[in-house]
Amino acid sequence: MAEVQSEAESLKSKANQCFKDKDYDNAIKYYSDAIELSAGNAIYYGNRSLAYLRTECYGYALSDATKAIDLDKKYIKGYYRRATANMALGKFKAALKDYDTVVKVKPNDKDAKMKYQECNKIVKQKAFERAIASDELKKSVVDSLDIESMTIEDDYTGPKLEEGQVTVQFMKDLMQWFKEQKKLHRKCAYQILVQVKDLLSKLPSLVEISLSQEESITVCGDIHGQYYDLLNIFELNGLPSKTNPYLFNGDFVDRGSFSVEVILTLFGFKLLCPQHFHLLRGNHETDNMNQMYGFEGEVKAKYTSQMFELFSEVFQWLPLAQCINSKVLVMHGGLFSEDGITLDDIKKIQRNRQPPDSGPMCDLLWSDPQPQNGRSVSKRGVSCQFGPDITNRFLEENHLEYIIRSHEVKPEGYEVAHNGKCITVFSAPNYCDQMGNQGSYIHLRGSDLKPTFHQFKTVPHPNVKPMAYANTLLQMGMM
Ligand SMILES: [Mn+2]
């Protein structure tokens, strides 16, 4: 017995070392081995919970933290971690309950008190938002803006739209301006937002495009506010244009601290080439995520909370999926929690809202593939995981060849799963300045629709750390 204990302890030390080295996958593996040997140890579950938090597996983090608390009611870290997982999932009331417990057990702990108050503030704010939302139909920020009368001060030397229009020259100047960490004038930012909202709101929830034999398209995955890596994609692969179309597959913002620069650049290109530059919604183009992971904070820091509200309205109009030549379906997350969903069902989704907790709209933004057949509970705690049989059936029923999705960091920047039928593409290299992964994008030619993969490494960025604008409850050291 003692030998088993010491074996388990040495696995824990090994796991702790991996965790320190930010090798979270191996940390999880060794904590799991320790749990195999000694299932009654709250700390093993608590530590594994933290590793799951770092890898965004909030569903698993939640259940490990709960298990740790079950094993040891006085294990304070368990409550902290469960609260963090719930915060990340937007379940603020559940998080508040755990912070409340911590405060009661440790009434003199200032940090606990601060977290309780911060969480309580969010819960109250959410309740307030719900109260006014049900009162009357929410008015658009657009109606309260008077863009015409906004003046651009004489000392502003940055790019301006030309007679209210985005041009190639404007886009080139804008990218350079942002590269130098300068701010686009708020009038121009509002012009872009109002125009792009109008444009996106006219698109269906499922966008269908066709490429001729000679045409091709570049599909990119998550960018997550890594503006300098986005510029690098354009360096490597050319600027977007009629002859160089792009599809960006969601999660443009959050985490990286240059999300404003990323999204205004992408929206600018959408206005410049509406038919050849495509954007799909990710799970981070949502209020809950933006509140926790930095985008809301960043927009407030660089502009105003009113502008964030307008961003939120625009995000709600981003299409949810795109079909290329009736053969390749692209979405941010993946397939569905139920069988029998058709392309027609996707078209019919009323997307102008925050995504619900379940159902097809939620699945498109949140689900992940898994290697084994069938479906299982999501490691993230939202939507589901789907196996190769689910993918096959969906493709057959909808006469498709394969799907492209994003949403998960991969060491190579991409991953081919489900016998080539489910491809992941991720375009944020060295994600969050710490994952060490490559980025990639995919070329698809109209002639054969075969995917070819292009990998790239991260480039330096100015010294503003990821998550700099995120909610303090989620900032790394504080979990
Ligand atoms: Mn995502």
TrEMBL record:
Transmembrane segments: none annotated. It catalyses: O-phospho-L-seryl-[protein] + H2O = L-seryl-[protein] + phosphate; O-phospho-L-threonyl-[protein] + H2O = L-threonyl-[protein] + phosphate. InterPro entries: Calcineurin-like_PHP, Metallo-depent_PP-like, PP5_C, PPP_dom, PPP_phosphatase, Ser/Thr-sp_prot-phosphatase, TPR-like_helical_dom_sf, TPR_rpt. GO terms for molecular function: metal ion binding; protein serine/threonine phosphatase activity. It is found in: Cell membrane; Cytoplasm; Nucleus. Its EC number is 3.1.3.16. Residues 280-285 form the Serine/threonine specific protein phosphatases domain. Its main location: membrane. TPR repeats lie at residues 8-41, 76-109. It holds the Pfam family PPP5. The keyword Signal does not apply. The active site is at H284 (proton donor/acceptor). One of its GO terms (cellular component) is nucleus. Its cofactor is Mn(2+); Mg(2+). Keywords: Acetylation, Cell membrane, Cytoplasm, Hydrolase, Magnesium, Manganese, Membrane, Metal-binding, Nucleus, Protein phosphatase, Repeat, TPR repeat. Belongs to the PPP phosphatase family. PP-5 (PP-T) subfamily. This is Serine/threonine-protein phosphatase.
